[in-house]
Amino acid sequence: MKQIYTFGRYLREKFGKRVYKVGINISGFTCPNIDGTVARGGCTFCENDSFSASTNRVKELKGFHLNLQTKENPYLDKQLQQLQIQFESISSRQRREYGAEAFLIYFQSFTNTYAPFETLKALYEKALSFDDVVGLSIGTRSDSITEETLAYLAELAKRKEIWIEFGIQSIYDETLQRINRGHDAKNVEEWIKKAKEAGLNVCGHLIFGLPGETKEMMLETAKKAYAWGIDSVKYHPLYVVKRTALANEYMKGEFTPISEEEYLDVLTQALLLKPEHVTVQRVTAGIDDDSLLAPQWCRDKNIQIRHINEALKKVGLKY
Asked: Mean pLDDT over residues 213-236, rounded?
């Protein structure tokens, strides 16, 4: 049985210790697909209110949002405090419960390069100053990063582990338009290649089960993402949560979620196509609360992982 090359294994091999990701949510960050810069309302599957920091200090910044044109950030000190509070809380728990020895800070919610350069620089450098932090992973969109920020991250990458996580989702422009993505596939390809040329590590997010897509389209997206040079991948099934445009489509019978059998099939094929050096950070996703409308198989992650391993076993793989 061949073990899939996971991101956790990559970190252990590189640093010789248990490295854990610390997910950080900084209030004041948003998305150009929400604030009206490229679109409004966000992607059809995105429930904007679900993005919230794990600290009550988020309330202090209510109504304040950054973008690339913001001239002043009067709340930077509060954002830096949020960063420290969250890191100390989460890393302490990870040390206690999992034996974590080092950390990769993951700027997670919304678009974490969509802010003035000086704000980004202050947050990134603060994060790298914490004890036992080996690097950063920055979740963003390909239409929300500047050449200046990319060059700065490339300098950081000479001394720290720096990752950029791009939401690829699909390589089909008709799909991206239908989900109100706000950019085309060419834009994603361009910035992934720029990030790689700058010497950065890139993780690509792929969603299987997007409206109107066939298995062949999903696998073509995976193949193109690999060809663009991503170093790591996250696979997600598309699930429907309340208070989204996708929920409206689902309730009207205009969208049918991917079945577990279909997802297992396309995931298995995508993993078989994946180059060996590309690490895997996620093989599924879901949510176990009353916001989930469908599919119900996305509710229990433990059951999902068990079924995924049963499917992978048939082709000689193990996650």
From this structure: 98
Give the number of domains in the chain: 1
**How many Cβ atoms sit within 10 Å of the Cβ of residue 318?**
11
Q: Is the Cβ–Cβ distance between 104 and 136 less than 8 Å? A: yes
Domain that holds residue 53: 2-318
Give the separation between CA 76 and CA 69, rounded to whole angstroms.
16
Alpha carbon distance 132, 19 (integer Å):
9
Mapping DSSP onto H, E and C, the string for 255-277 reads CCCCCHHHHHHHHHHHHHHCCCC
The predicted-structure confidence for 142-156, as pLDDT tens digits, reads as follows 999 999 999 999 999
What is the average per-residue pLDDT within 302-309?
Answer: 97
pLDDT tens for residues 12-29?
Answer: 999 999 999 999 999 999
CA dihedral 46, 167, 288, 105 (to 10 degrees): -120
Q: At 249, phi and psi to the nearest 5? A: -60, -45
| CATH for 183 | 3.20.20.70
